[in-house]
Please model this.
Amino acid sequence: QVQLVESGGGSVQAGVSLRLSCVASGPSFISYSMSWFRQAPGEEREFVAGITWNGGTILYADAVKGRFTISRDNALQTVYLQMNNLKPVETAGYYCAALCSTVVVTAVEHYDYWGQGTEGPVSS
Model:
């Protein structure tokens, strides 16, 4: 069983940066690829970024490429999402997810564990 706890969200102005953290508890963190998803009000949850256990593969949604950076610290069992130049349309809840695999996938239904989410609203 893996538990994920996100933090770092909050209200920010458009154009500024925010870093989200997700701490995992439980065994074998390196067995998991880790990803961030987001869900805006009334919308479906969508893939933002994902990283394999050793950082060998990193994927980003097209909408965030060049602005967001995912990283992980296996010793701390933590995955991060650095978000730069935030846009108002990116107002959403941001969720950390774990997949017991050596690959990153973008589909919500494949993930094994989810955090409770952290709000990352962006005001214009």
Notes: The first strand starts at residue 3 and ends at 7. The mean pLDDT is 94. The chain is about 0% helix and 45% strand. The radius of gyration is 13 Å.
